[in-house]
């Protein structure tokens, strides 16, 4: 007995195929409150939805296990925008250098 099965038509609507970026995790920003040093761990933790202590311990372990935690933290400090100003330190530095010309 030969039976042919047809699949149900797939939805090609943009609403169902594309996730809504506004409904996802919060934007990666260094918060003004809850900082220990520069707010990198607090910002990463907020964006991932986990406790900041976990991220701080991860940075510490990376720093002690090979030194990668320190440059990663500094890169986060320079590249992750501040919650208040909305700009990263690197962007502020570039703007101040280009304005000085």
Features:
mainly alpha, 5 helices, 101 residues, globular
Describe the model.
- The chain is mainly α and 101 residues long.
- The chain has one domain.
- Helix content is 48%, strand content 0%.
- The chain has helices at 14-17, 40-48, 52-64, 69-79, 89-99.
- The longest helix is centred in the middle third of the chain and has 13 residues, at 52-64.
- The protein is globular and about 40 Å long.
- It starts with 13 loop residues before the first helix and ends with a helix.
List the helices and strands and how they pair.
Layout: H1 14-17, H2 40-48, H3 52-64, H4 69-79, H5 89-99
The domain count comes to 1
Which structural category fits the helices and strands?
mainly alpha
Write the element-wise H/E pattern from the N-terminal end onward: HHHHH
Low-pLDDT windows of residues? 7-20
Radius of gyration: 22 Å
Shape: globular
């Amino acid at each position: 007995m030969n039976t042919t099965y047809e699949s149900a038509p797939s939805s090609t609507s943009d609403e169902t195929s594309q996730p809504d970026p506004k409904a996802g995790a919060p934007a990666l920003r260094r918060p003004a409150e809850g900082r220990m040093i520069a707010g990198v761990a607090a910002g990463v933790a907020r964006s991932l939805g986990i406790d900041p202590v976990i991220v701080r311990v991860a940075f510490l372990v990376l720093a002690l296990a090979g030194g990668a935690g320190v440059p990663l933290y500094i890169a986060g400090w320079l590249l992750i925008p501040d919650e208040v100003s909305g700009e990263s330190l690197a962007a502020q530095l570039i703007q101040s250098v280009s304005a000085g010309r």
